[in-house]
Design brief:
2 copies of one chain form a homodimer. By secondary structure, chain A is α/β, with parallel strands linked by helices. Helix content of chain A is 47%, strand content 13%. In chain A, the strands form 4 sheets. A 4-stranded parallel sheet of chain A has the order 1-2-6-7. A 4-stranded parallel sheet of chain A has the order 8-9-10-11. The first copy, chain A, has a 3-stranded antiparallel sheet with strand order 3-4-5. In chain A, helix 2 crosses helix 5 and helix 12 crosses helix 13. At the A-B interface, helix 2, helix 3, helix 12 and helix 13 of A face helix 2, helix 3, helix 12 and helix 13 of B.
């Protein structure tokens, strides 16, 4: 899922997200949308679909992650989280119920439960305590969700989130609790927050053995192309990450042959297409030398081109993964790909 | 002509300039292109057309304007101008011959003569002296141009530039000198540099009575939609201006009903299309409230949308002007339009 933090995938037109990148679903951030444009505007617009005009599915995180990573002077209690806006310092209070109400108003197709995302490193005692809080909050989220109706005439669904930091017994306990809620899909949070990749894979592996196969399993905030393929191998079905767009804005291109830092002098007079194997029109339309020039000259068109390229590459990569799973040769293909994807070109 | 300073119209993809904005020609800045990507890269790319992939005509200014407005510690002498790059402080020297050579390498379809653009206000003595220098430089430009060949297999042409500040006798003298060179088109420089609009129109009027009608008359660096219509009324055929793109990036939209500052709170919950009369897809695709949100949230997509809108509006406006000239009712139409174009909505 391309990330559309504030209701827009950064630097990419809506029709480009649909037609050039071929995204089937995008993600919005509850924390950002709640603060700006705010609930009143979103409600008047008929929800986020009405506001940004994106008619395919949208998923919203619960705001938990941003409250912990962006907001100032947050205070966590049993009832919820009090925090200050990073924009104007105004104080707000999110509860599990409020997070559901907000996502009802946003009109997200997939609503995420309100959880606490533990940092890394995180001691065992805190991780355990936090996981139980997340579980209690989940019960409140489910109650609120199940006792309220969607506002705009289409169904919404609620995904609960497995926590437990990098502790196998906590992850196991959390995954069992989450699976027992029997929602339509399940998510894994609290990974890709600085832990070694091996720990991420170990937790993903363990949790995927517990969460039901027949429902989507969503690994939140992951990751590099290699991270994505390795987690697909472990059973993950859905991902979101700012990496393809954020790194694009810094001039980093992900390709099937490896990683390009387009600002590098080696591309100065390389007039070959950005990515001869690329599937989006920008790959053949613009040369490496021209794209490098746009970045060096500070032209925002550089970010626009790189964002389309990276997102189209990510969507191509997961599409290929699906094909190879169906064809039965995923493992071989994945092992070949991961050798190339991390190379610096 | 949309301005593509560094070989790219800011925030707009090449195919959008062609298909959505319907530009027939774009402008590049010799000073910027000379410094970055530089002559070596442009030559290797087969000129600017090869570098940025824009296959319709391109016009380059001579670098004179940027040398006077951007570069540091410039020194003007009979032979040319010595200046320091605004990027790295490196010292460079432009002569009329060098300006032609550079534009031969850039491969511009229309090359501008190297002139001195006088500031406003400018005393008579300086304006007169500067005009004569511009005329002597023009002779050198023409000699260099006529004794060299295009590099990439297509024709290039050279436009001379009328100077003379806001002094009618100097403008008359300069226009006669420029017309006598009998080039394929002629330009008017040194206006839209801070003088009252009445002075601009008076000079444009005077010069258009001297420059031949059957050749394009190009007023450099102009202007607002009203400026453009008023100058068309006086006989101008070509314009370039950063205003539609620069103001777009600041949230100012030009429309057929007047000017919108999209950051204004009045658009907060206005879910109507950006411009119901607009001819580009963005006008119907995005609402005012959403575009305002993008600007307030600092999303570069806001600049992208506003840039497409403004450029498409400018191209629509001059296209309508042409239709009304042909239909014989230009004056009436123009007088109706200028009443609306400057209004703040």
């Amino acid at each position: 899922m391309p990330v559309g933090t504030a209701g827009a995938v950064k630097a990419v037109h809506r029709h480009e997200v649909a037609d050039d990148i071929k995204a089937q679903i995008i993600l919005g951030n509850t924390y950002h949308l709640y603060l700006r444009p705010g609930m009143d505007i979103l409600q008047k617009a008929g929800g986020l679909h009405g506001f940004n005009g994106w008619q395919k599915p949208q998923l919203t995180d619960s705001g938990g992650y941003q409250v912990y990573s962006l907001a100032a002077s947050r205070k966590i209690s049993e009832s919820g989280v009090s925090f200050q806006s990073h924009i104007d310092g105004a104080r707000h209070f999110f509860t599990p119920e409020r997070a559901i109400d907000i996502q009802r108003i946003i009109g997200a197709d997939i609503i995420m439960a309100f959880d606490e995302c533990t940092p890394y490193p995180c001691d065992y005692a805190y991780a355990e305590k936090s996981m139980h809080l997340t579980h209690r909050w989940l019960k409140r989220c489910c109650e609120r969700f199940d006792s309220t109706e969607p506002k705009y005439g289409f169904n919404q669904t609620l995904f609960p989130i497995v926590q437990g930091s990098v502790y196998p017994d906590l992850r196991k306990q959390s995954a069992e609790f989450i699976a027992a809620q029997e929602r339509e899909g399940n998510a894994i949070g609290g990974l890709s927050v600085g832990e070694p990749h091996e720990d991420m894979y170990a937790m993903s592996d363990l949790v995927c053995q517990i969460l039901p196969k027949e429902k989507p399993r969503y690994l939140m905030g992951v990751g590099t192309p290699v991270n994505i393929l390795e987690n697909i191998a472990l059973g993950i079905d859905m991902f979101d990450c700012v990496m393809p767009t954020r790194n694009a804005r810094n001039g980093m291109l992900f390709t099937s042959e490896g990683i390009i830092n387009i600002r590098n002098a080696k591309w100065l007079d390389d007039f070959s297409p950005i990515d001869p194997n690329g599937t989006s029109y920008v790959d053949q339309s613009y040369s490496k030398a021209y794209l490098r020039h746009l970045f060096i000259a500070g032209e925002m068109l550089g970010s626009q081109i790189a964002s389309i390229h990276n997102l189209a590459f990510y969507l191509w990569l997961v599409g290929e993964a699906r094909k190879h799973i169906i064809a039965g040769d995923f493992e071989n293909w994945k092992n070949q790909m991961v050798k190339k994807l991390d190379q610096r070109l």
